[in-house]
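Dear Dr. V.,

Thank you for agreeing to look over these. As mentioned in my earlier message, I'm a first-year student in the group and I'm still getting used to reading structure tokens, so any feedback on how I've presented them would be very welcome. I ran two proteins. I've put each sequence directly above its structure. The first is here:
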Amino acid sequence: MGAWGVGVFDNDNALDYLLHVKRDLIERITECLGRPIRVWTLEELSIIECGDSVLLPSIEILCLICETYHTRCFNLPVEVVDEWQQRFLSAYDEVIDEYRPKQDYKIKRREVIVATFERFKKICREAD
């Protein structure tokens, strides 16, 4: 094991672990994006439900990891994150009214979604 400092992630094994955590988060994101827009059973999560409970938190965690530990995100192309954003926002726009949210919530929630994706795209761009 190579260590270059006393910090929690200042050694090869800890950085390898961080890599696995980031890889798992990416897998969770892609799994959510593969879900249907609407579901017909209580056992299944739609892309929106999975997005709120897994996808967006996973992107936020990735942002925090990359920003805090100055790590890259697998050279993930910004175009891929753009596709994720378009897929999720399309689903959001298509079904959000079915949840009967207040207009203010609907607008602010969409802004948070966009800001989360934009933050992640910025991190991906900086890794290039």
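The second protein is here, in the same arrangement:
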Amino acid sequence: MAGINLPKGKSFIMVEETGIGKGFPGTGSARSLSRVGWPGTCRSDPLAAVHVRPQAVGFLGLRPARKFAGWGVPKRRFTAASPRGSRPTGTAAARKARGSDGPVRASPKPVRAKMPAPMDWPISMPTRWTREMLRFRRSLLEGSLTRATLPDRPPKSYIALMAAGRILAIYLGVFALHFAVEQLLLALALCHARACRERPPAEALALLPPEEYDRCLRYASARGRLALAANTVQAVLALALVLTGALGLLQRLADRAATGPELAGILLVYAVSLIFALAALPFLLVGQFGIEARFGFNRMSPRLFFLDRLKGLALSLLLGTPLLYLLFHLVQSSPRWWLWAFLAGSALQLLLAVLYPRLIAPLFNRFTALPEGPLRERVENLARHLGFRARGIFLMDGSRRSTHGNAYFTGLGRAKRIVLFDTLVESLSAEQAAAVLAHEIGHEKKLHVQLRLAGSLLFGFAAFWLLGRALDFAPLFGAFGFAAGNAPGAAAAAVVLLLFFAAPLEVLFRPLASWVSRAQEHAADRYAYRDAGCGEAFVEALVHLSRRNLANPTPHPWASFYFASHPTLLERVRALRQG
């Protein structure tokens, strides 16, 4: 050990004598790794020290005590000579022996450190970590040890030891699983619709005439084929960006075009989002002016279509730019930046829930009070009977864009309101429209809006926490071609990676979200059917809306379980009449 000569001004090592030679205890787990000292663990000089504890000595190539008894390495530091005027390092006795800045020399008699036999190495350690420790041992024996030889901090888990190639392989595996699951379910839905067209189920024909049921199946098949094509194009685009290094190129272009790191991060996030938005645009046009027009739903002009997209883009820039700038600024100013960013994002989300009915929704549609007549009288009596208080019940001009009929509940606190499409009011009787209103009141009474908002905040917390963890994990950025140089640049890259990982992880969370949504719809149905006393009027309204919207009453059960946010017509009617 004493024969190891360290270059001037570089690292030094302290070896404790007690318990040398055991190697890493246990199975080489993350807990065992944490027992190894790292740069910054020695109090006297945290910038230059590498503190190797006894458990690591056998693996680093020093002589194990159980084989070489009498090695007798004292508890001492071996240092390289430091430049005059630098901060003194080493023990108090060493500083006293050398004066203020002289070097401490090890035992005057050189002793060569002997490499242990391979059987003494901890074979259960991760492969990459084994290679790093072998390089460290080689550097130690050759006298070329530097601070860059070891990582800056001890790994806390096996994830921290992953190489960039392994991370990319895991992402591609999850991505392939998500793509295969969704495409398989869509293909099953298409085959099931074809089989139902050939042999219509008697239960479906009891609610719908044969020609309308066939039209529902043809509409569902057309939408399914479009989804298959759109998913394929989006998947190919994502793989191209990841595997060709285009993400790193976009990051470099954003750095050159921006005047600051925060602006560069914002440009990177918007550039990636714009690429995917442009790729999805042709399928939106086909869906709106092809499929919707062919089945008689579309009333939107191309001018209105693009005007809606421009308004949505302007709102995204207006709301997203300050939030992203705040996020990238907090990364540099606080170690708990992810928590403050989550609180700021949550506050904005709550504010939007209040402001959306008053300020944002009127940008796209006109909202008027429900006109005087039998429907308004019936609706007001029902709301009074159920104890529902809101800012009002409004009529929306949905007929400007489509003939689809719908109703929804929105807002929080005093800003909450119920919105009925004008197409729905025109096609339903007063009793049926009141039953639909009772269903929406059921969502409010069961606190479904608040529960969905709480779930959104929970997922937001998890997303920001993952962003905070990702910034300390350099191989993650290297796997996707990013260069995480400055803090805002790393945060912007982490936001983009979060978007890339969010879609594949849908394979885990989307079925759960769909199941929760269907359960809430069933609860609102029961409220309207029983508690509000609407009874068969509500069933008639469900059947009428399903026929008008060409909703498929018999989808493939697996596809419905994964994709559907609402129960099918048959499931809703069966649940109401049997429960």
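From my reading of the second output: The mean pLDDT is 75. The CA atoms of residues 244 and 467 lie 24 Å apart. Does that match how you would interpret it?

Kind regards,
E.
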